[in-house]
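Q: Given only this backbone (595 positions), what sequence would you predict?
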């Protein structure tokens, strides 16, 4: 039996960009700044502390503006992330709270800022949605930058790194990442972070292999250690023996061959050997990701989330702000279609001007279409902007978290009112926008035949549909392992939605993480879906598998697995039968790359 040497360590994290790197590490110190509590004795000291805090904010602001100015051309799309950090610097949640704490509690700026951050964290931790919850990291990055200014700690620039190294840090901010030079940084690793962080998004743009969420990597390595980074599986090996290095050099070459071959499929049709075509589109979180959609061959946007336009603001975005953002996306992606999901916000306070009710279980509370139907004025502003943006290309509107027919009827009524307003005001808008329902609640799946009478398309949001169907909280560590896309009940539900949709004459798409999993591709084909929407990175691999498949095989697979009674049986079937058919695809699972 091969025994691991004492100084060899293997860690597992979250892979955010695939690739394999072997080299020496450079440890970057991004540890949190330690601050001490100081009580301010009189009003003069309080006033001086407020001035000191405001000056520090101004200094941090200037530093971010300088970074923004120096962002290389290939990363200019990410300037909006720096803009969002500039907004956070003056956000009520941080800026106003810190000033209030200094004044009311008579404490020093550093301690007040840490206290304001802690209050923000409590708000974010109650959020179920991973994407929105992960935005707290941006607030942390801004706070740390500000604390460094207040305490006089300098922040070394990653642009100054001259050697070829693998960067290791507790965490890296998006500003750090924009300063990386891909010809010098072979990979980067962090203790914390997730796939949806801004840092991860920029890493994907740079094409740098990266693994985040390693928890203890900064404690496990020192600068100069030899290390292997497997950005496909999220594995990191510290001080590997020579035989392991050779093994990974071979794996590195094999992966590069596979990647080069697979990228070619991105710009081919997603068509089976026997001529069945399915549309492959991309899920998009930020406007910065638009270039990758075209680069990897997606045939449009199957899901554009709109929450980012409402976050980190003191007020609600105006119709003009929304219109400009939506029309930019539609125009840039034209003639391909863009499906924009209406506001799926809720659970807590993100736009400071929205007054939320306190909820014990926000995931099942006032969110998504429920919130929009209650806050009709906010909803109508978004719908007006969407209708206007529809003039610039093929825009489709999708309503999230539909649980019954009445919600669709009411949403369409407000949409019709928005059309009438625009018509009366003489403002150009698209009259024939296609309307869709997101199927992510079990009741929506059960009455898909009824909903099909009200919409033009369905999109199955598998993340929530699986969570709600199995009663599994994906962020609860005690039950998260029970989240199972291949549960027979889930597969039957998807089949039922597809069949009901087709009988009703509507196309059925899938836009959850399940849609981008390479090993599921034959199943999704056999279930009869018309469209799959996924992380742009997963598009070439999905097309490759589809072009190697036949519908006859896919139907046979689905007929077989629908006879099984457990997910374990289905996994075993895929492993013994389908893995032989698609050996390379099972070796490089695309689920590792999805958001």
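A: Predicted residues:
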């Amino acid at each position: 039996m091969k025994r691991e040497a004492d100084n060899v360590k293997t860690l597992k994290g979250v892979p955010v960009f695939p690739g394999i790197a072997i080299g020496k590490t450079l440890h970057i110190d991004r540890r949190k700044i330690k601050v001490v509590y100081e009580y301010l004795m009189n009003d003069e000291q309080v006033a001086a502390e407020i001035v000191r805090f405001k000056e520090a904010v101004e200094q941090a602001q200037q530093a971010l503006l300088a970074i923004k100015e120096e962002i290389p051309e290939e990363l200019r799309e990410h300037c909006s992330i720096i803009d969002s950090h500039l907004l956070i610097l003056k956000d009520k949640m941080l800026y106003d709270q810190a000033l209030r704490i200094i004044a009311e509690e008579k404490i020093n700026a550093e301690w007040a800022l840490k206290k304001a951050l802690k209050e923000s964290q409590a708000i974010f931790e109650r959020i179920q949605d991973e994407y929105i919850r992960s935005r707290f990291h941006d607030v942390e990055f801004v706070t740390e930058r500000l604390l460094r200014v207040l305490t006089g700690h300098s922040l070394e620039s990653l642009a100054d790194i001259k050697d070829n190294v693998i960067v290791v840090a507790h965490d890296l901010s998006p500003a750090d990442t924009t300063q990386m030079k891909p010809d010098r940084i072979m990979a980067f690793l962090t203790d914390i972070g997730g796939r949806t962080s801004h840092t991860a998004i920029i890493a994907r743009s740079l094409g740098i292999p990266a693994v985040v969420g390693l928890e203890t990597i900064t404690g496990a390595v020192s600068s100069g250690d030899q290390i292997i980074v497997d950005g496909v599986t999220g594995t990191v090996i510290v001080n590997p023996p020579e035989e392991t290095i050779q093994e990974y050099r071979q794996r590195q070459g094999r992966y590069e061959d596979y990647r080069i071959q697979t990228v070619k499929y991105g710009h081919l049709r997603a068509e089976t050997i026997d001529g069945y075509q399915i549309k492959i589109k991309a899920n998009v979180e930020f406007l910065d990701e638009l270039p990758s959609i075209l680069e990897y061959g997606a045939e449009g946007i199957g899901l554009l989330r709109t929450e980012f336009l409402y976050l980190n603001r003191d007020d609600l975005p105006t119709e003009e702000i929304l219109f400009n953002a939506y029309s930019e996306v539609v125009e840039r992606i034209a003639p391909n279609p863009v499906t924009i999901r209406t506001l799926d916000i809720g659970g807590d306070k993100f736009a400071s001007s929205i007054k939320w009710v306190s909820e014990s279980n926000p995931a099942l509370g006032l969110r998504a279409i429920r919130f929009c139907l209650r806050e009709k004025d906010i909803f109508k502003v978004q719908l007006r902007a969407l209708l206007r943006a529809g003039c610039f290309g093929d825009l489709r509107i999708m309503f999230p978290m539909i649980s019954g027919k009445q919600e669709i009827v009411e949403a369409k009524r407000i949409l019709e009112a928005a059309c009438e307003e625009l018509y009366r005001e003489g403002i150009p808008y698209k009259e024939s926008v296609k309307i869709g329902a997101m199927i992510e609640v079990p009741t929506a799946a059960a009455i898909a035949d009824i909903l099909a009478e009200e919409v033009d398309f369905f999109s199955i949001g598998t993340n929530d549909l699986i969570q709600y169907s199995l009663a599994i909280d994906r962020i609860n560590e005690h039950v998260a392992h029970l989240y199972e896309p291949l549960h027979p009940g889930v597969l039957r539900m998807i089949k039922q939605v597809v069949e009901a949709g087709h009988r009703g004459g509507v196309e059925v798409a899938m836009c959850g993480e399940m849609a981008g999993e390479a090993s599921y591709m034959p199943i999704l084909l056999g279930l009869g879906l018309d469209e799959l929407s996924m992380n742009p990175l997963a598009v070439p691999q999905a097309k490759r598998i589809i072009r190697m498949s036949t519908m006859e095989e896919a139907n046979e697979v689905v007929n077989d697995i629908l006879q099984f009674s457990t997910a374990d049986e289905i996994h075993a079937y895929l492993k013994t039968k389908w893995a032989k058919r698609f050996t390379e695809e099972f070796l490089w699972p695309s689920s590792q790359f999805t958001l």
